[in-house]
Amino acid sequence: MALLRHKIIANNIANANTPGYKPLKVDFESVLRAVNSDFNRHGDTALFRSELQRAEQLIKVEVDDASSRVVLDREIVNLNKNTINYQALLSARGQLAGILSMAIKGARG
Amino acid sequence: MDNLHVFDISATGMDYQRLRLEAIAANIANAHTTSARLESLYRPLQAVSRASIDFSEGLESIDGHGLTGVQEMWLEPKNVAPRRVYDPEHPHADREGFVFYPHVDMVDAMTSLMVTSRAYEANVAALTAAKAMALKALEIGK
Prior knowledge:
The structure holds two protein chains of two kinds.
Chain A: H1 2-14, E1 24-26, H2 29-42, H3 45-58, E2 61-63, H4 72-105
Antiparallel strand pairs in A: 1-2
Helix pairs in contact in A: 1-4, 2-3
Chain B: H1 2-29, E1 45-51, E2 70-77, E3 83-86, E4 98-101, H2 106-138
Antiparallel strand pairs in B: 1-2, 3-4
Helix pairs in contact in B: 1-2
């Protein structure tokens, strides 16, 4: 997800001076929010899991209607946000791997 | 993540300073633009903004989530009378030989330009601080 977003931001910046180009955006959060509110209503964990997996296919790239041109500093801000998000995800993954390796090593670790 | 919320706040601040810069640039660019009709003469523009918080509602209603930076921004023509210059040979001169120019105060424009660029820098500094904090937060437990 973060990689896709990075690609889109890079594409927006690359086309900053292309006439007629409209910035693209990707909205994963709204898909996620829909899944989450579904879960809050039904409380079905299995359904939640399957919907979460399906959510990845629901991500779509769309034209940002709010702005008709690429605003460079906005894109840079989004880029920074995305980078930090990505790093947060990576470190969370690292922690998970740490737990796993602890489990493997057991008391010997 | 709360630090990333600061990014959006600073971004609106940067947007607003850019709008101010655009207004100043347009004013300077059109400082010597004349018009045959007084009504269609360029009027100096001023950027106006509205904050996300309404202070008349009292401070109790404000929490961290209500902070979204600059809520709205737009351009409005300044309420200044045009400059009248005597120049009978000018194609836009009226019957008495006067030409109307928009009243663009260059000293005001230049000082506003400096203030705007400093304010933009301040927004970038706030954003950089938020970024440093977010990255530091990732180091917790390492």
